Amino acid sequence: MSSQISPLATQLLTQLSSTKNFHPTQQWLTAFMSTQKSTTPLPALTSTASFRLLSSDITTSLSSDSPHCLPNDIHNVNVKERLLQGPIVVQLLGIEDMSKSRWEQVEAIEALERGEGTKGREIIRVTATEDDDDSNAGINKGGGPHKLSLQDAHGTCIYGIELRDIKGVGLGMRIGCKMILRNVLVARGVLLLEPANTTLLGGKIETLHKAWKENRKAELKATIELSERTAQSNT
Length: 235
What we know:
Elements: H1 7-20, H2 26-33, H3 42-54, H4 58-61, E1 81-84, E2 88-97, H5 102-113, E3 116-119, E4 122-125, H6 130-135, E5 146-151, E6 157-162, E7 178-181, E8 184-187, E9 190-193, E10 198-202, H7 206-233
Parallel strand pairs: 6-9
Antiparallel strand pairs: 1-8, 2-5, 2-7, 3-4, 5-6, 7-10, 8-9
Helix pairs in contact: 1-3, 5-7
């Protein structure tokens, strides 16, 4: 890739790799550089590129080469455990609070829709700002552990379980939020996540985030109704 791009673009690749572990595709990099002035200082160029990558779908913007992605056999349940060294960038596709019933999850989502969050047992008012929208700042801190649906640049999806509270992880997370995985233990195809091996970068994919917010509550309610009908038919 480096032989076909400008010295400035090469410097940008180095900065993105060292600061965010981002390895953009040549197609993405070429398109991005075509919108930038050649006189733009490297720090400003890096900041703009990072912001756009955080808002992108990594299956189209980042390299899917094997060193940057999950192993092909990551879902093999016959492998009792393995260590995933990384670093690997993934994006959030969904999140569930395993400590809450489905009704409690519906209530938590509705609280977030009203602009309310939790601080311990106390309900607080969360004021959304433009910065908050990209940094997962309006997260519901109560509950947990959480089950996360994650995806790498190759498109491989995998579940991760939060073993210990990770700052920034909660029901208010933005779908498409980027995370870096390092030295993660994988137990029978499930990532075991904790603060030492999981770093949140932020960002979101607007279309996915909107769809998830619109559909998640409806899916939970439909599951509740099905469970109730099944229980009634068995009595």
